[in-house]
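[Meeting: bench + compute handoff]

Bench side (C.D.) handed over the final construct sequence. Compute side (W.E.) agreed to return the predicted structure before the next meeting so the bench team could plan truncations. Sequence as handed over:
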Amino acid sequence: MPNIVPITDPADPRLAAYVQVRERDLAGRGDGFIAEGEVVLRVLLGGGARVRAASLLVAARRLARLAPLIETLDDATPVYAASQAVMDQVVGFPIHRGILAHGPRPPDPGAAALLAGLAPRAVVLALFGVSNHDNIGGIFRNAAAFGAGAVLLDAGCCDPLYRKAIRVSVGATLTVPFARLAVGEDAIGALEAAGFAALALSPTGAEPLAGLARPDRAALLLGAEGPGLPPPVLARARTVGIAMAAGWDSLNVAAASAIALHELTRPT
């Protein structure tokens, strides 16, 4: 049975994880994350997430609508219910969605272990320097939609468990496995050791992505908008491109990931 805990005092110490959410977004949460909104909560509590909710903070007016979801929780997971005014004071801004969850960050499995555990035929993404949370969220959403097995992130990528990235991904960052490469770790080497062919998406790609004979284990490499993939990465990968109209050579990286994943995961 759910453990509904009424909250009337915005200074209640049990709400420490939810205090000044935006400031904590900037400062970082260490080993925790905050998820926001009903759509994301449904993913978090729906059984497919790799993370768990340690608690919920919900505007009391939302409880009836969320009852079917909340009833899946055991009594060890408190659901703090507050008025909208109290909730706004706690988080530090008017939170119209009225739904937050806090949970522990899962341990990073490391690239080698993550890749080794995937199916013999799989597609993964490897991201380099993607530091925009909207793009990270969009890429993870596409990864989930097209069945990518995992995402690797280099040290220059932003956090997929940042609140905005989770929200933009509609919860996909909670379900798609990912690992972060250490500074200086050889991404191409890790992919090759696991049997993945590295396909670097670039405006100057030597081969068109459409109709490409896909290897059983394929890694799609994506770089940040503007600088793109680092030259040493491009030099060691098979470069591919998306055909576009004359005079236009690039797309938003999240949009490009959707097109590329569609090509790489279509039935043969």
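W.E. noted at the follow-up: The chain has a mean pLDDT of 94. C.D. will use this when planning the next construct.
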